[in-house]
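Practice record 12: protein with adenosine-5'-diphosphate.
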Amino acid sequence: MNTSADKSPVEQLLTPVQYLKGVGPQRAELLERLGLRRAVDLLFFFPRGYQDMSELREVQQLEENVPVSVCGVVEEIDERNTGPGRSMLGVLIRQETQFLRSLWFNQPHMRQKFTVGQRVLLSGKPRLNGLRWEMTHPRVEVLAAGEDPPSGRILPTYALTEGLTQPAMRRIVGGIAELYSDFVEEVFPASFLAEKNLLPIGEALRQIHAPVGNNQLELARRRFIYQELFFMQLALRMRRHKLQLEQRSSSLPATAKIDARIRRLFPFELTGDQQQAIAEISRDMQCEHPMNRLLQGDVGSGKTVVAEYAMLLAVAHQHQAALMAPTELLARQHVRTLSRDLRESRVRIALLTGSLSAAERRTTLEQIAAGEIDLIIGTHAIVQADVQFQRLGLVIIDEQHRFGVNQRAALRQAGLDPHYLVMTATPIPRTISMTLFGDLDVSTLKQTPPGRQAVHTYLGEEGQRAKWWEFFRKKLREGRQGYVIAPLVDDSADLEVQSVESAYENLANGELEAFRLGVLHGRQSTEEKEAIMLAFNSGEIQVLVATSVVEVGIDVPNATLMTIEGGQRFGLAQLHQLRGRVSRGSHPGYVCVYATANSDEAQQRLQAFVRTTDGFELAESDFQMRGPGDLFSLKQHGLPPFRIADLTRDSEVLDEARTDARQMLDASPNLEAEELQLLKQRVLLRYGGAMELGDVG
Ligand code: ADP
Ligand code: MG
């Protein structure tokens, strides 16, 4: 099918794939599975990677460690078990009279790819082993019978679906790129392209699918990575601007008198970082637009007191403040802390969680609506529709990292909007806070309160268990308390209980039989948990055997010991949170983590955990090892995924895009300039819905 002259460029781009050259109804169905319906979808279906065919070599031309591609026939396949869960796959490739052996370790699924006699193309770094050339984990492409190795120089590789081969996909997309690229309208003004050294869109599309060389390919990729990040930065700033214009809040200034009255309540001097955060928050809360601030601080850095300050600032101006915690346990702990600090004041506090009886809930709601309660502390129960505040001035969300760009809407109320403070103890990688949390201002607590002792972290050796327990008992006898974290069990709550119960049984009849133990897990009732926490707080329970429910927020400064079992099952952030439980007082903390490191990744993770206690450093290395993960996925936050940008890799481009977006919007706050209309339209098309930008006029 040819492009016909009487169609507009937009109509051309919307041509259903079925009518495109080399597609037809059958392939159209396959493409549909990849979400590709129209010509334009194929144009923007970027390759996952590339194979550099300019490096196609004969076996006798190979050089040690120089990346190449080699074409040959599968001669022999040999598969071996090399230990529990370990395997090795060797595939011998013949090229005329020469041989190359390719190897895969612990990737049994690779076996299915090969049959003897098949022609394949391998790309990787060769190594000479004795007299034979080998390639470990090369990239493989199976060639159809009689098919020549592809001729272009740099070949794109696309995501595929069953029934669709790489060569076919390449031909289809390559053809479309050639014929349709120029129908795509440029979104950037020419001067902007020139200034930023960006390839024009048509050229960039052609080069990304059929690069003439590495330089052109890099330029093409850079253009799309930049564009993607730039669009998002524009959207975030536009949203911020829009909220600023639309939303009004009460101005709640921290006058000298109020400030002094609040500080008097705290039992300690604030750290410099706490002072700084409080100053930033006070500045925000004085504005008639809502504060939207993220307070990030490592575990134990003292976020609660900053939150307390903000809440009391609202109360000083006869407003209510709500504090939302992720678990009931934590909500109750906050009530305890606040009640202690506020015992001499007239501030009225109420707990609002799912476990209140219907009658209790009704009374509490009435009091909140009547303004008889100043501080409402609770869980998600706070945001339910029937909760009417008399005059809500501030909402604080504790230990929450899901609370990105999109989740604030739920808490808006009629009339004036409250100020918002979100707190997280999982330091957020910089690129994430610039994107998912891009419209939040950030305050950071890096210092820990004075007098804090270091936490020593050990990777436990099975042979040394007795020694560790001996040390554990010695510290308990000195008056300290401790935790034993039972191994995390997959999903099933029943297994989880079993795992804690059996850890408890073993310890109570073994290493810790002389001490008072308690058990804490997710299946217990709220009253049970609360009673156990109180007993642990008071020292009545010396050792808490628990699941990772103690992970967030629990604050018992006298607890300085922790044994973690099954450490390989925990993520780095989780391990760090757990360790945070024993670094809260004036005695040094000791953590011993036992693990059967069943993979390189687990090994690396545990080593990183032992190496540093700096949560920010750990967050970055976790991010580099594993990428953003679920918690920080765009999808989780209701945003469209990136097609090409990668936040672990493209942080420099992100910085640039962010600066540029700010500059552009400073000059043209709503992108109203004539030459930016198309750009604006595209940004809204992509982010308008997800970020509620729809009516940016
Ligand atoms: P997190 O940031 O992990 O939520 P918390 O707010 O629970 O930390 O504080 C951890 C512990 O440090 C608490 O016991 C708290 O009372 C104490 N703390 C907080 N700030 C200070 C300070 N400036 N000086 C001394 N102790 C402090
Ligand atoms: Mg906390």
